[in-house]
Design a protein that fits this description.
alpha/beta; 5-stranded parallel sheet; 9 helices; 14 strands; elongated; phosphoprotein; DNA binding; DNA-binding response regulator
Length: about 260
């Protein structure tokens, strides 16, 4: 399946594939992850709904942002597939609202907007991934499997790690500065956890993309840059808001290579 916007916003959609042609060789986990599709285009929405259901997911389709917010508030979802060009509101506002209420929800933006500023805005609004139309069902399913696999892999018990005045509890997924919680987004937390595990070591961009996203990542490493900027900003804001002097670990950029967490 290739999903394209119809009408004035882009090329006309290709003929609807049959259900058999939309089924891939690798199906989703049998737990049937709930997926909320937010898409106003009838052709794309129907293709996504049919393709996801045929591959083991449990999709629900909303055609407006307001309907999606209502649905997300009353039903626990695992994934939000979000178009940005909705008829009643901007998809970025939907992403921000849903992220604020559901910090662990996987949000994937599906859009025809291709400018760098749009990608950055989408990720900064809380999205975990950004897929540009037209895209194939195979790539979308691979992205979903990669993200969801990262969320369910069991890790051995780990003691909280102290990084100067910062404490990272991987098991509880809590980051605190002098016992005050810092509200990190899921990928920001994962990124900090990887750097903490390699504290004092140079960690390449490729390693970070493989460990935080997936070894089969299809997208640009721009996602890493946006997530890193968000992590640094939230840590700095927490330090500024502290009523006591604080000492934070420093995340140094290693030009042409990656990053290093320094205590």
């Amino acid at each position: 399946m290739t999903c394209e916007r119809t009408g004035v916003d882009g090329p006309r959609a290709s003929p609807a594939p049959t259900l058999s042609s939309m089924r891939t060789h690798a199906t989703a986990d049998p737990s049937r992850h709930r997926v909320l599709i937010v898409e106003d285009d009838e052709t794309i929405g129907r293709h996504l709904e049919t393709g996801l259901r045929g591959n083991g997911y449990a999709p629900t389709w909303s055609r407006t942002g307001s309907a999606a917010l209502t649905e997300a508030a009353r039903t626990p979802y695992d994934v939000l597939l979000l178009d940005l060009g909705l008829p009643d509101m901007d998809g970025l506002d939907v992403a921000r609202a849903v992220r604020a209420r559901h910090p662990d929800l996987l949000i994937v933006i599906l859009t025809a907007r291709t400018d760098d500023i749009d990608v950055v805005a989408g990720l900064d609004a809380g999205a975990d991934d950004y897929l540009v139309k037209p895209f194939t069902l195979t790539v979308l399913l691979a992205r979903l499997r990669a993200h969801l696999r990262r969320r369910v892999v069991a890790s051995p018990p780990q003691e909280p790690v102290r990084l100067a005045d910062l404490v990272l509890d991987v098991v509880a997924r809590r980051c605190t500065l002098l016992d005050v919680d810092i509200d990190l987004r899921p990928k920001e937390f994962d990124l900090l956890a990887v750097l903490a595990r390699h504290a004092g070591e140079a960690v390449s961009r490729e390693t970070l993309m493989a460990e935080v996203w997936d070894e089969n990542w299809f997208g640009s490493t721009k996602t890493l840059d946006v997530t890193m900027a968000g992590l640094r900003r939230r840590l700095a804001q927490a330090a500024d808001a502290s009523v006591r002097p604080t000492v934070l670990p420093r995340i140094s950029t290693l030009r042409g290579h990656g990053y290093r967490l320094e205590l």
